[in-house]
Protein 1
Amino acid sequence: MTTERINPPELSPPTGFSHAVVAAGSRVVFLAGQTALDADGKVNGATLPEQFEKALTNLLAALGAAGGTPADLARVTVYATDVAAYRTHARQLGGIWRQLAGRDYPAMAVVEVVRLWDEQALVELDGFAVLP
């Protein structure tokens, strides 16, 4: 896959995301929403950072099983039950992202939701990737 991350100078400088990602490849992988569920279907972690780390780990596991890597991510949406808490923990969440997925940021959005499917879940991530 080839990617070009586009961050026009007339837009606010991106922090932890890219404004646009142009991706060319032969396969598109759509990734279902992932929360902090373990293999037994139980939510792991009581805090937003703990749940974010597990949800991202789950998203990357699904991507890896499809033959992709974090650099193949073109788009990720983060659904949070409390955007104020997300902003409070943004620096820590960014560190978790860099540790697990690196610095090739996809186009991203954070959306506040009333609740998620799993009542204990604080965050869910979905997205898509373009593979070679």
Protein 2
Amino acid sequence: MSAQLACLTSDVPAESALRVELEGERGTVEVAVVRDGDGTLHAISDICSHGAVSLSEGEVEGCFIECWLHGSTFDLRTGQPTSLPASRPVPVYPLSVDGERVLVDVDAPLTFS
């Protein structure tokens, strides 16, 4: 598969997240499309690696999103946890903008070392 329409840029207000479901090669993928403090859009897994709850319901501050359940924060650029109790990263997906269309490729998660 390739990038698919996740939402429109106007659907994601500043420093907030929008939960979307996209179809991947292995089935439905829950994605959080997030607008950071600088206005940049990111696509990460919507499922916290610690508590298995929706990250899109958490607070966005700068380039980080906080899980509402236990307070773990994740870097929107890398998916790496920056505070406990989470210790495993969440997937980050390639995102592109075509006019107003936000496109995400859930079959090609980005990897960081």
